[in-house]
Amino acid sequence: MNRYWRLDRHPQGTDFAAALTLAEEPLRRPGDGEVLIRNHYLSLDAGTRLWMTSRTDGYQPPLPLGSPMKGLVLGEVVASRSPGVNPGDLVRAFGQWADHSLLRPEESVLRVLDRSVSDPRQHLGVLGPNALTAYVGLTETAATLPGETVLVSAAAGATGTLAAQIARNMGCRVIGLAGGAAKCRFLLEDLQLAAAVDYKAEDVAARLATLGPIHVYFDNVGGPLLDSVLPNMALAGRVAICGLIATYGAETPTPGPMHFDQVLMKRLTIKGFFAPDFWHRGDEVISRMRAWLDAGQIRMRFDVSHGLDAAPVAYGKLFSGANIGKVLVDLRNG
Amino acid sequence: MNRYWRLDRHPQGTDFAAALTLAEEPLRRPGDGEVLIRNHYLSLDAGTRLWMTSRTDGYQPPLPLGSPMKGLVLGEVVASRSPGVNPGDLVRAFGQWADHSLLRPEESVLRVLDRSVSDPRQHLGVLGPNALTAYVGLTETAATLPGETVLVSAAAGATGTLAAQIARNMGCRVIGLAGGAAKCRFLLEDLQLAAAVDYKAEDVAARLATLGPIHVYFDNVGGPLLDSVLPNMALAGRVAICGLIATYGAETPTPGPMHFDQVLMKRLTIKGFFAPDFWHRGDEVISRMRAWLDAGQIRMRFDVSHGLDAAPVAYGKLFSGANIGKVLVDLRNG
Question: What secondary structure does DSSP assign to B76-137, as a single string?
Fold first, then answer.
């Protein structure tokens, strides 16, 4: 039998427990072209929240109700009828929130992983898709230059952590936005950022006015924080929209920033990007990250929950901001 | 004596008559470095509306109350104490809404004009700053390519008319947005656009859904129209924010587009630009426009009022949408 989380309802806000049901079905053997993976870790990512809504104007179609919840997994191949993927391979792919994932490699961005990485969780961390997101967002979308002031929102989250460190390694002055003293301490002490702004305790716009102007805003959040940032952007500044976590739960559109006119007044560029558009740059980016990782110049903190049962609660952390670093569910003893 | 319009109050909405006073003062001779111009035409431009507010987050500081209203003028030099500018020269510069403008060339983008242009008004039209705005917005800000679908708002206005024709001349499929049947007829018949959408009579979002996807939106307006456009943009589409006329009158910030999240979902680029950043490209752009003008491949309709008295009412046309083409005040017999 294979246990899996089934999406039965569109969640209201962050009530994922009411939307998901832990179900089970017989474990099917892979058909032609399919691979069966025993999931070791689930990677929980805020962007997948969009799949849970009924909105059809997202970047991917919503999951039909009654389907297994999808997400990125790290695991070991149990059986394969796909050439180039062999039993025993450590792989990463878009699978299911389940004990096992059955998938087609070409539909799920399957990647056979390097066993020489001492902590395999890094394949979902410093060497994972969040790193590609952070790297292309900074270098390509925002065209960040050394010496610029870079602001990162959700800076203690998985992608934010990486964007902040990559910008720091590029020679930028990096300011992190996060909620709470513990996260801000993490940004200053662990990540060695130039400044940290606690949006729960500070007047963000006023504080940024003392720290800016901001050349690049790497935004994971949208919403009111974006509004506090726009008046503090530098002339010809760039806003890379990586995520809009503030609005993912909405079933209907929400208003854009009140200070939208600063786009004109300051000749800003606001640009959305989507990491899957850049999968072809994965090897290049991962090799760069690997060099930094091996040199101790980039790190990831993991927020690990244990057992498949824990997935909906762990997922909720992404939206309540309870986590520092990458949220994983460890299924190895589940 | 020199008559001039003085900004005495911040206008409420479009009540320019209550905000401006026709005053007069003795005509002063130019001091060292100054030029005195007899104004032949005033160019009325929506962007100058921002100078009339108290807002300090615009792209230029507001005019102090009690100052002469500023604007672009076309006229003849009466006296000059600035090298390179001589009495009798036909010039264009940022002067005053007045019979005469006294200014310093280096502070007012003064340009000595080519007398060989048969209709000198074209120095405020096809060969004027609106053409530079249209050209750099399309080619540089939006990186428009031949064959793309380009949507232009306020397409019957001065800048919109030029943007639409330049895009058409570049080999794009051009859709114009304008209010009213007369303007839409002008777009189809005079400018030969592929389609015209009447925002006063049609459901813009629904109509654009049949005409799109839109690769480039050249936006002069902002506000609700931008909101109708965003869901109809193509993947990786570009929105060049040339103007936000819908919000210029506001003394406080107004909400941004409800469909702002499409920036992420469609990986859009929204980019503001400001023609004065591109003055250095003026010669290049004007020579291109001159070739099209002489070949009959670009045109401008003028909406001309007569006499300095008429300026505030003529200015109001820009905000009520009463004009087709470039709004000028002819002062030659005033």
Answer: EEEEE-STT--TT-EEEEEEESBSEEEE-GGGTT-EEPPTT-SSGGGGGTTTSHHHHHHHHI
Task: State whether A101 and A150 are in the same domain.
Answer: no
Q: Do A83 and A25 belong together in one domain?
A: yes
Rounded-to-integer distance, Cα B323 and Cα B198, Å: 15
**A271 with B269: Cβ contact below 8 A:** yes
Residues B108 and B204 reside in one and the same domain: no
Is the Cβ pair B271, A264 closer than 8 Å?
Answer: no
C-alpha atoms less than 13 angstroms from C-alpha of B224 in its C-beta half-sphere: 5
Please compute Rg for chain A using Cα positions: 20
Cβ B256–A256 below 8 Å, yes or no? yes
Q: Judge whether A82 and A105 are in contact, CB under 8 Å.
A: yes
CB contact under 8 A, B267 and A277: yes
Question: Which H/E stretch holds residue A6?
Answer: strand A2-7
Q: Please check whether residue B44 lies inside any domain of the structure.
A: yes
Interface check for B313 against chain A (CB to CB < 8 A): the answer is no
**CATH code for position B138:** 3.40.50.720
B258 in reach of chain A (CB within 8 A): yes
Residues B134 and B267 in one domain: yes
- Output the tens digit of pLDDT for each of chain B's 334 residues: 999 999 999 998 889 999 999 999 999 999 999 999 999 999 999 989 888 988 777 777 899 999 999 999 999 999 999 999 999 999 999 999 999 999 999 999 999 999 999 999 999 999 999 999 999 999 999 999 999 999 999 999 999 999 999 999 999 999 999 999 999 999 999 999 999 999 999 999 999 999 989 999 999 999 889 999 999 999 999 999 998 888 776 777 788 898 899 999 999 999 999 988 998 999 999 999 999 999 999 999 999 999 999 999 999 999 998 999 999 999 997 5
| pTM for the model | 0.91
Q: What is the largest CA-CA distance in chain B?
A: 61
Q: Per the domain annotation, does A282 fall within a domain?
A: no
Say whether residue A264 is in contact with chain B using an 8 A CB cutoff. Answer: yes
Q: How far apart are CA A218 and CA A142, in angstroms?
A: 8
Structural domains in chain A (count): 2
Euclidean distance between CA atoms B103 and A42, whole angstroms: 68
Q: What domain range includes position B25?
A: 2-123+300-330
Residue with tokens 């009447």: B198
